[in-house]
Amino acid sequence: MVECNSKKKRNPLGIDEKYYNALDIEGFSRMMKDPSYCYKFYWLEAIVHLIAENRTEATYDDVIDEMIANAWYPVVEYHIHLSGIFGNGEIKDNLERAVIKLQELSGLQTEVSCVEIKNAIKEFQKELHAEKMDLTKNVPYKALSGFANKTGNRISLDSSAGRMMEYYNRLSQREIVLPYTFGDKNGLDRKLTFSSAWVQMIKDHTVPILGWIQCEKVKWLQNNNPEVPGIIYKLDLSEEKNRKLAHVHKLWDGILELKPVVDVFTDEAISQAEYDVDHFIPWSFVMNDELWNLMPMDSNLNSVKSNKLPYWDDFFIRFAKNQYIMYEQIHEKEGIRKLYEACYRDNLHSIWANQELYRKGNSEEEFCSVLERNMKPVYDSARRQGYDVWDRRFVG
């Protein structure tokens, strides 16, 4: 028998040693190994959530509802592709397709609760049936492959779903305790029964297990969305209060006291009492509050623009000229320079911005060229990812 300490070194979970002799912790740590799609991550995450709610059994339908709810924000709010796309632009992933279909059927806004999402799933159960059935084809038994073929009773991992479920149920009864066993019903009504020993282990280690799943999921999603920044922040709905715009607002307050600034979208002078600081490329894509992407704009329009992209050809040069006004004031007025320096902690992390954009000596043409050269690829990535363009054109 392999010593407990040796086993503990081979998995990333830090499970209490008392579980090693009773449970195959190494097999558990392989439940997300070699995925073809994202399903394994969301499947295991859903089961951990259900067990944390004191569930001892669940139908496929229960687990898949949890998967759809957990995938809602990455797909709907942040336009993440869960398993990439085919060369013709078709979405690969059945879970992603289920989420998109649910959003289209329900008309739910992005910022909704898990309960609202699950209620919508139940309302459109019939319409979502095909997508949900597709999610039952492989992952329920493929997720257990790390437990297979460790004794004399062996099976090909390419065997049919029926043979695999029969194998795992027999294995759990005779040789090894598995996290769950399969019931006899068909389709979405098939029931999983969670092993009491695994239930206790998962309850004792819920936080590190969910952290491990999140880490593996982030690596998978980043590989499948290589142009998208801040994937780790896009697994659920981020709080608006985390946005750090106070110092930038003070900077623009200082500038507006010295010089009029025209709103990018209205071509009217910005009122110091009635403006917001907003992102040109949506915050939900860039997931940062870098100064180079921020602008003062009419408060009423800010909520209308939401997380859409402005038309580049219509609005970028206006945005760049306002940034250049700020740039001039930074280098001409000591007070504005101090307000700018106060932004270093929260809003000035991009190396190119510090070294090229805001350095002293740029002409307006040079400044706008540096800004465009660095912003346009980010803008184009957001467009490819599926961000809509705001249907507001400037009329001079």
Largest sheet, described in full?
A: 3 strands, antiparallel
- Taking strands numbered 1, 2, ... along the chain, how are they ordered across the largest sheet? 1-3-2
Straight-line distance between termini: 79 Å
Low-confidence stretches: 1-9
The number of strands is: 5
Strand content: 5-15%
Q: Please, how many helices? A: 19
Estimate the helix proportion, in percent: 40-55%
Mean pLDDT: 90
Q: Order of SSEs, N→C?
A: HHHEHHHHHHEEHHHEHEHHHHHH
Q: Look at the helices and sheets and give the structural class.
A: mainly alpha
Which geometry do the CA atoms define? elongated
Radius of gyration: 26 Å
Secondary structure blueprint with pairings:
Blueprint lengths: L3 H6 L15 H5 L9 H14 L4 E3 H18 L16 H13 L7 H10 L5 H6 L4 H4 L18 H14 L5 E3 L8 E4 L1 H9 L1 H19 L21 H13 L16 E5 L3 H4 L7 E5 H7 L6 H21 L1 H8 L2 H4 L3 H7 L6 H22 L11
Antiparallel strand pairs: 1-3, 2-3, 4-5
Helix pairs in contact: 3-4, 3-11, 4-5, 4-6, 12-16, 15-16, 15-19, 18-19
Give a description of the structure.
There is one protein chain. With 396 residues, the chain is mainly α. It has 19 helices and five strands. The strands form two sheets. It has a three-stranded antiparallel beta sheet. Strand 2 (180-182) and strand 3 form a beta hairpin. Helix 15 crosses helix 19. It is elongated. It starts with a helix and ends in an 11-residue tail after the last helix. The model is unreliable at 1-9 (pLDDT under 50).
